Amino acid sequence: MTRSFLLALGVLLPASVLSVLVALAYGSVQIPFPDLLSVFFGEASRLHSTLVLDLRLPRALAAFAAGGLLGLAGALMQVLLRNPLADPYVLGLSGGASVGALLAMLAGLSMFSVSAAAFVGALLSTILVFGLAHGTGSWTPTRLLLTGVVVAAGWGAMISFILAVSPTAELPGMLYWLMGDVSHARNPYPAWGVLVVVALLALPFGRTLNVLARGPMQAAALGVAVRPVEWTIYVVAALITATAVTQVGAVGFVGLIVPHMLRLIFGNDQRVILPASALGGGILLTLADTLARTIIAPEQLPVGVITAMLGVPVFLFLLYRSR
């Protein structure tokens, strides 16, 4: 283990635990930390136990898992496109998921069906973007990026059409989902399973990703099977993005901010950046959701509003600094 790896884990693991504790303690009703600890020992009041264990804990775990998936997907996409400003949502994944989810809501289906429809939409967008970018020849990062932007614009037009023809009573739920909403996430454990499995499997490929980040020709000269590795990165990034979208809706900028900021702190070793991005993304989205629940309590903001307020200035700053 490198010194940077141990330093990243030493900083981000305690910060992860602290972010979850903050999410459990703060909201429309604040719970002091001594009372919070008594909940886990079975000594708290029934109100505090219900509030923490039944409401806030599943939501905090869902936000952390989704944020970790988005951070990990962003790190993978930046290696694939060899662009530190790349983001999984640039390729239209959230647009496809949003169309699927909105159609399920319009049909009056259950939240489980909405999540399933969002997952199918994200996978459909993945197949569409990759198929169009490949065309009759090979794809390049620039061609993939441009295809994703065009497909995302098409999904955006479909979203506008669905909102225009939807009943007025359905619009608030649809708009909240489009802006990111963790309040309906009640079963975070499948997302946690995906996050843990992908993070553990990605670690052994860190050295390969370091070589790939130098460019396809140099990677091929050093013995890396470039095309299969790029296919694998794209499919995995798409799958974990789709999983995150089904949990919390269309939340942007997490996959952009977290990997880039961690790269500035810990360097560009993917063996460090991948697990650090999973932890950093979880921390960011958990704290953002906590802020969304408390800033105008008892009303709640969509978590996507908070991440956008943080992400837009950071994106512009990074764009200004890059050449």
Automatic annotation (TrEMBL):
Compartment(s) where it occurs, according to its Swiss-Prot or TrEMBL record: Cell membrane
Keywords (A to Z) from UniProt: Cell membrane, Membrane, Transmembrane, Transmembrane helix, Transport
Cellular compartments per GO CC: plasma membrane
Gene Ontology MF annotations: transmembrane transporter activity
Topology in the lipid bilayer: Multi-pass membrane protein
Source species, domain of life: Bacteria
An annotated GO BP: siderophore-iron import into cell
One Pfam family per UniProt: FecCD
Annotated family: Belongs to the binding-protein-dependent transport system permease family. FecCD subfamily.
Name recorded for this polypeptide: ABC transporter permease
Organism annotation: Thioalkalivibrio versutus
